[in-house]
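[Help] Beginner question about ligand-bound structures

Sorry if this is basic. My supervisor gave me a protein sequence and a SMILES string for zinc ion and asked me to "get the holo structure". I don't really know what that means in practice or what format the answer should be in. Inputs are pasted below exactly as I got them.
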Amino acid sequence: MNWVRKLKRFLNPPSPKPRMRKEKASPVSRIYDLQSIYQEINIEYFEGKLQLSIDWFGREKTSRKISRKVLGYYDDRRKSIKIHRSLDSPSFPHFFLSYVVYHEMLHSVEPPIVGRKRRRVHHEGFRDKEKQFHSYAMAKQWEKEHLAKILHG
Ligand SMILES: [Zn+2]
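Answer (accepted):
No worries, everyone starts somewhere. Holo just means with the ligand present. The predicted complex, written as structure tokens, is below.
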């Protein structure tokens, strides 16, 4: 390699991102269609007005390490919802996944309340609306009975 090529290579290193490419190559869900779950909830609870993106994130194999907190999250800057890929499994009933999606969608219309000491994300207004979800009680019950077992083995 002469110095010109060396310099070029230094300035433009080959992109070492095979891992990311691999993950992007398989965004297809096996069990659940997030997009249609999102659309159904959008129409039923938000008059079809929300304009968010939704997708899976993470790897299925990490399921035993994940906690309730990372089953899903909402990114307000990107207007996007991410649901952990481990939920794309027959271990999780449809109503539970729907509840997680609804919860994240609610974050886009019930922003955190910033107080003097802390920022309250799941405040009273949020909780009230959350309870309006048709399978709220069922999802909470299911969460209590099964979630820890599934996530932590
Ligand atoms: Zn939340």
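A couple of things worth pointing out: The CA atoms of residues 103 and 130 lie 7 Å apart. The pocket of zinc ion is lined by residues 103, 107, 121-122 (CB under 6 Å). Feel free to follow up in the thread.
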